[in-house]
Each structure stands twice: as structure tokens, then as C-alpha cells.
Task: inverse folding
């Protein structure tokens, strides 16, 4: 994937700025619900048959890092969430390519500054989910969630990072519909939770998410 880090940072900034605008608007509407922004680490299990297809060829597990925003409705305890994950595949079909470093060509015209670089395999996942969050315990500081969601895998490629003119190829994996259950605990304005997602469609079997959230 070309310039994957830059793409992730750009997408992360867009999501955070959008959520920030929403949080600012919602700050004066706290009677109607509460907002939170979170970061997460996911362990994703990919369907082995899909992972081994010729147009895929990655391991059947992957790691993802992401950011999400959530709105909890005070009247119904329903939670609405939207998030963006950056997926790092364990690639089974790496390639290498000779890459020239052009930044110093004006100084060293006769010096070959190129090198062979290995490909990496990455993707973005956009997801949305909704479901009830039930607070439990003597002080209502613990919670249990049940959600339904849908995800889409975007810009899923195998390529040389930070190379503008290198070979790349698509990794054809699809997200899908899933159900999620989670448990967590609230520490004043800070939440820690663990969620399990089971997929019903697409190329992902299931995933496990560890999440840290800040509540507004």
C-alpha cells in the first residue's frame, strides 16, 4: 500500500475532526445522551479459505489499530458507533522491488542511492454498529453491550510503502455483517472494555477488540 502511514494519519485526522465537531455541538445537549471517543486494538481472524485464495494469500489472522466515536442515547440506552481501523495483514506473498531514493540526486548524481525494499500488506476498515449498553453492578460502573454492525474493507493492497511508482496489487477481502457482545468498566470519564465480533457474511470469521474510551 503506497504511503500507508500518511493515508492512515489523514483518515484519522478527518474522523477525529468530524467527531470533535459533533462533540462540541453535543456538549450543550448532555440531557439527550453522552458521547465518547475511543482507540482500539483488534485481533482479526480471517476465513482460512478466503485467506488462501490466489488473489489474497495472507495469513488467517491480522492486527488492527483504530479510532471510533460513539453516542449513547439517554432515553433508550442505545449506542451508535462509527469507527476506522488500520489493518496490518501477515503477508504470505511478499515481493521485493528496487527503489531509487531521489531526494539527493542533485547532490550525488553519480551515486546509486537505491535499495531493494520488501512489500507490506495493509487495509482500512470502516464500520458502524448499534445496540444497547446495559450498566450493571451496585454503582452502575460496569456495563454489558450487545450490538449489530457492518464493516467494509477499503484500500486493501500489497505494495511498497512510501513509493510513488512501484508495483502493487489488490488483496480482495470483504467485510460484512456481524454481531458483537462486550463487557467493560467505567472509571469516571474513562472506560476500558473487551468486545467480541462474530461475522455472518464476508471473509472475516471473528475478531476480538480491546478498547479504551474517553467520555464527554
Result:
Amino acid at each position: 500500500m503506497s504511503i500507508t502511514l500518511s493515508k492512515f494519519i489523514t483518515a484519522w485526522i478527518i474522523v477525529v475532526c468530524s467527531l470533535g465537531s459533533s462533540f462540541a455541538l453535543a456538549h450543550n445537549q448532555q440531557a439527550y445522551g453522552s458521547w465518547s471517543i475511543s482507540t482500539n486494538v483488534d485481533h482479526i481472524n480471517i476465513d482460512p479459505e478466503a485467506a488462501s485464495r490466489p488473489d489474497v494469500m495472507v495469513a488467517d489472522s491480522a492486527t488492527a489499530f483504530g479510532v471510533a466515536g460513539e453516542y449513547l442515547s439517554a432515553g433508550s440506552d442505545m449506542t451508535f458507533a462509527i469507527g476506522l481501523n488500520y489493518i496490518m495483514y501477515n503477508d504470505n506473498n511478499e515481493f521485493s522491488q528496487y527503489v531509487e531514493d531521489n531526494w539527493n540526486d542533485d547532490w550525488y548524481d553519480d551515486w546509486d542511492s537505491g535499495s531493494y525494499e520488501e512489500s507490506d500488506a495493509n487495509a482500512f476498515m470502516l464500520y458502524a454498529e448499534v445496540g444497547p449498553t446495559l450498566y450493571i453492578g451496585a454503582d452502575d460502573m460496569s456495563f454489558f453491550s450487545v450490538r449489530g454492525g457492518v464493516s467494509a474493507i477499503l484500500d486493501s493492497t500489497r505494495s511498497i510503502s512510501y513509493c510513488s511508482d512501484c508495483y502493487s496489487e489488490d488483496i480482495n477481502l470483504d467485510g460484512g455483517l456481524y454481531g458483537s457482545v462486550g463487557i467493560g468498566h467505567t472509571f469516571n470519564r474513562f472506560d476500558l472494555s473487551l468486545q467480541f465480533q462474530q461475522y455472518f457474511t464476508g471473509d472475516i470469521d471473528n475478531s476480538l477488540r480491546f478498547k479504551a474510551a474517553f467520555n464527554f
Observations:
- The chain has a mean pLDDT of 85.
- The two ends are 35 Å apart (CA to CA).
- DSSP finds two helices and eleven strands in the chain.
